[in-house]
Specification:
Elements: E1 4-6, H1 8-15, H2 19-28, E2 33-36, H3 37-53, H4 57-75, E3 79-81, H5 85-96, H6 103-115, E4 118-120, H7 124-127, E5 134-136
């Protein structure tokens, strides 16, 4: 059975109720979906930046509301893939090979390669540069 790993972009699409993605998720089943700790980091970094920039009661209410919503949303995903020693090793190899993609995308790719999963992303340009990485776009 395929391990489907949604990248941060696809999580954002899911949060915005993107119809083609929702259709595919219904077909696959949420229980068969995974994310990485990198996606969790990116999601919460964005929410914490909103709190940091909040300069009014309304913006603070909104920012903290987003943290709550993000926590509840991510809680429905049962598989959160860890940064493992194997992911660290693969990440080092990819850097040595000079795979030139964003740092966070490279980390997601390393976790996916370590787990043998398929990354679900719209970012074929970057993830497509990673040798051996299987990608799909459900958008």
């Amino acid at each position: 059975m395929t391990l489907w790993i949604l990248d941060t972009d696809h999580i954002s699409l899911w949060q915005r109720q993107h119809t083609p993605l929702l259709t595919k998720l219904d077909e696959i089943g949420v229980e068969n979906i995974a994310i990485t700790v990198i996606t969790v980091e990116e999601q919460f970094r964005g929410r914490l930046d909103m709190v940091r920039r909040a300069n009014s009661e309304a913006s603070r209410l909104s920012a903290y509301g987003w943290i709550r919503e993000t926590t509840l949303f991510l809680g429905q995903i049962s598989q959160v893939l860890a940064w493992s020693p194997e992911a660290e090793r693969i990440h080092g190899e990819l850097k040595q090979r000079r795979v030139r993609i964003g740092a966070q995308d490279l980390r997601i790719a390393a976790i996916a390669l370590a787990c043998g999963g398929t990354v679900v992303t719209r970012n074929r340009r970057d993830f497509g540069q990673v040798p051996g990485l299987v990608i799909e776009d459900w958008s």
